[in-house]
Amino acid sequence: MQTESPAKQIAGFIAKFDDANAKLIRAARAAMRKRYPTATEIIYDNYNFFVIGYSPTARPSDAIFSIAAAANGVGIAFLQGATLKDPDGLLQGSGKQNRFLRLKSAATLSEPAVASLMQAAVVQSPVPFPSSGRGSTIVKSVSAKQMPRRRR
Question: Which residues pair with 75 in a beta bridge?
Fold first, then answer.
């Protein structure tokens, strides 16, 4: 049995969402790919969320950001966000490591305060993104059982 390409798998994962969230996921992914072309995308279609991680390596523990999508919206997670200075108070969450912000549109990623947080996250990462090349896409995990991806 031949496995579908990552691109086909990802298209299928995104197709589970309503049109507005699917469009936002695709736009956010394109913006992240453009900003971090050497990042390895690590894909999870898990029980609660569809996640696209952005890592300097193929190791999930090295990931710096992830796009996380559920039926109620799309966000960007800063995986070590608890240690970031956030003068504008944009980051949400109270976990020991992760912080996130909800995306109204992919343009949120280009807002100066958000871009500044993203740059700070990259700078504080112990593993830098490669300086050249093109990052690969790895479908890491697909859960058989999932929460609905569309609002009820």
Answer: 68, 102
